From TrEMBL:
Catalytic activity: CMP + phosphate = cytosine + alpha-D-ribose 1,5-bisphosphate; AMP + phosphate = alpha-D-ribose 1,5-bisphosphate + adenine; UMP + phosphate = alpha-D-ribose 1,5-bisphosphate + uracil
InterPro entries: AMP_phosphorylase, Asp_de-COase-like_dom_sf, Glycosyl_Trfase_fam3, Glycosyl_Trfase_fam3_N_dom, Glycosyl_Trfase_fam3_N_dom_sf, Nuc_phospho_transferase, PYNP-like_C_sf, PYNP_C
Gene3D superfamilies assigned to the protein according to its UniProt record, in alphabetical order: 1.20.970.50, 2.40.40.20, Nucleoside phosphorylase/phosphoribosyltransferase catalytic domain (3.40.1030.10), Pyrimidine nucleoside phosphorylase-like, C-terminal domain (3.90.1170.30)
Active site residues of this protein: 254
Annotated protein name in UniProt: AMP phosphorylase
Function recorded in the entry: Catalyzes the conversion of AMP and phosphate to adenine and ribose 1,5-bisphosphate (R15P). Exhibits phosphorylase activity toward CMP and UMP in addition to AMP. Functions in an archaeal AMP degradation pathway, together with R15P isomerase and RubisCO.
Residues spanning the signal sequence: none
Keyword line: Glycosyltransferase, Transferase
């Protein structure tokens, strides 16, 4: 047995450290995979060696592995075999078919932390290059559900909403969940953190309340107040999902087959009966054309049928951000403003009411074609606001929070229009890059405020965007980058003049 030396350091992977003498005695080298066994728990980790940091007879264990092992006093280790899924990942790279068993092995290895970051990145990259056939996506989704916990509600229908993401500022879940819950339906909403964006719904909700709950707690809170907005990655619900998202986030990609499975596994695991999926379409989003949107809608509906979930898809406008803010705190402030029935952006209000309306119709509390108006009544009467405050309280946040209480990064700088004219080009992806450079989403207070959208008139020197951050150096680098390659292009209506040659 080796005496545990806890290293309270989060390094984003499962790691342990042995003194070089012990490592040599066991025939282990740095980078080897080892199985670490404690009383009643085991995990796989990668090995580092040292001459100084741990003594012979000791083992240094970093935070991630310590959590899995329940903070043990002593452990033993064995060399771990090369995971079988590496071979299947290679098959995926070669665009070969995978069997149900092979897919299940990959998912189990991901859940058990048997894959290194390099191997995970290889899986995610291979999935990005080759879409899986639909039967493999069904196996993948089922494996992701079955390797975690599931929630079974006694009351039905259980409603849910999910966005494929890809459009900046998509804070609509903060309005939709309370509207649906205020209508008397259950909506246990699990979200991921940002994948390609600068703030996922889990990042946003975390500004208002804790988002890390167990499956049992999600069930209890949903039954009490009608809904939750929690981080899927904190639960044991579809536990492979968040591990994959970490690799996807680093690469800013969302592979098609993986996206289908990621969304539907979370919906299947919470026992959803009916789901609306928001699919933002437009240049620079995950769905460049309406045809791409139709293909995805068909794939999502088919996958839902195979899982026993009624899915409806809504193709939404993704050409420019939803509302005028990007980044956790800024987005939360904007969503609260609308819930408080103060003036706010129409794009956010209309999109939230449309999607909530579909859910009210699917859940049978509004007639066909009457969902939008029903959602609007719940929003304007203040019931949606009151419901969000109840959800915040149930999740342990401050139920008296107001939009003006939300603190934004103290370092802000405006990017001004270099000329007068009209906004003729608007680059969503650049805005997201700038918000990420400013520190979002890990810096909750960082982000971008958009002053001018596509087609709007601008005077020379007027602000186009404001970038905010908690750190002055991150702000500086984002501002420099914005000026080097503007995310919003302004031109006069007169683009070029061709004078008569004789008059030159
Ligand atoms: O970062 P990108 O790729 O834009 O999208 C990821 C976001 O999309 C989904 O939204 P929601 O949970 O339905 O609101 C995810 O849960 C996550 O919040
Ligand atoms: N791949 C994904 C896209 C959007 N949301 C998710 O949870 N997962």
């Amino acid at each position: 047995m080796l005496l545990v030396r806890p290293f309270d350091i989060e390094i984003g992977q499962h790691k342990v450290m042995l003194n070089i003498v012990d490592a040599r005695e066991r025939g282990l080298n740095p980078g080897d995979r080892v199985r670490v066994r404690a009383k009643g728990a085991a995990t796989t980790a990668l090995l580092d060696t040292t001459t100084q940091m741990v003594k012979p007879g000791e083992i240094g264990i970093f935070t991630e592995a310590l959590k899995d092992l329940n903070n043990p006093v002593d452990v033993d280790i064995l060399p771990a075999p090369r995971p079988a899924s590496i071979c299947h990942i290679k098959s995926l790279m070669d665009n070969e078919k995978l069997s149900e068993d092979q897919i299940r092995t990959i998912v189990q290895d991901i859940v058990d932390n048997n894959l290194s970051d390099i191997e995970l990145a290889a899986y995610v990259t291979a999935s990005y290059i080759h879409n899986m056939p639909s039967e493999e996506v069904v196996w993948l989704t089922k494996a992701m559900i079955e390797t975690g916990e599931r929630i079974h509600f006694d009351t039905h229908p259980v409603m849910d909403k999910h966005s494929i993401g890809g459009v900046p500022g998509n804070k609509v879940s903060l309005l939709i969940v309370p509207i649906v819950a205020a209508a008397g339906l259950l909506i246990p909403k699990t979200s991921s953190r940002a994948i390609t964006g600068a703030g996922g719904t889990a990042d946003l909700m975390e500004v208002l309340a804790p988002v890390e709950f167990s499956a049992a707690e999600i069930k209890e809170i949903t039954e009490k107040v009608g809904g939750v907005i929690v981080w899927g990655g904190a639960t044991n619900i579809a536990p492979a999902d968040d591990k994959l998202i970490k690799a996807e986030y680093a690469l800013s990609i969302d592979p098609y087959s993986q996206m289908l499975a990621s969304i539907m596994a979370k919906k299947g695991a919470v026992g959803a009966d009916a789901v609306v999926v928001d699919m933002p379409v437009g240049p620079g989003t995950k769905l460049p054309t309406a045809d791409d949107g139709r293909t995805l809608a068909k794939d999502l509906i088919d996958l839902g049928d195979k899982l026993g979930i009624r899915v409806e898809c809504a193709m939404t406008f993704g050409g420019s951000p939803v509302g005028r803010t990007i980044g956790p705190a800024l987005e939360v402030r904007e969503a609260l403003t609308l819930l408080e029935n103060k003036p706010g952006p129409n794009s956010l209000r209309e999109k939230s009411l449309s999607l909530a309306g579909i859910l009210l119709e699917m859940g049978g509390v509004a007639g066909r074609g009457e969902g939008y108006a029903a959602a609007e009544e719940i929003l304007s009467s203040g019931k949606a606001h009151a419901k969000l405050m109840e959800i915040i309280a149930a999740q342990g946040g401050n139920p008296n929070v107001k939009s003006e209480d939300i603190v934004i990064g103290e370092n802000c700088e405006e990017i001004l229009a270099p000329a007068g004219g009209y906004v003729v080009a608007f680059y969503n992806k650049r805005l997201v890059e700038l918000a990420r450079m400013a520190g979002a989403p890990s810096d909750q207070k960082a982000g971008v405020i958009i002053h001018k959208k596509m087609g709007e008139r601008v005077k020379k020197g007027e602000p186009l965007i404001t970038i905010c951050s908690s750190s002055d150096w991150e702000l500086d680098s984002a501002v420099r980058d914005a000026k080097r390659s503007m995310p919003i292009v302004v031109e006069g209506m007169l683009l070029e003049r061709y004078p008569r040659i004789t008059e030159l």
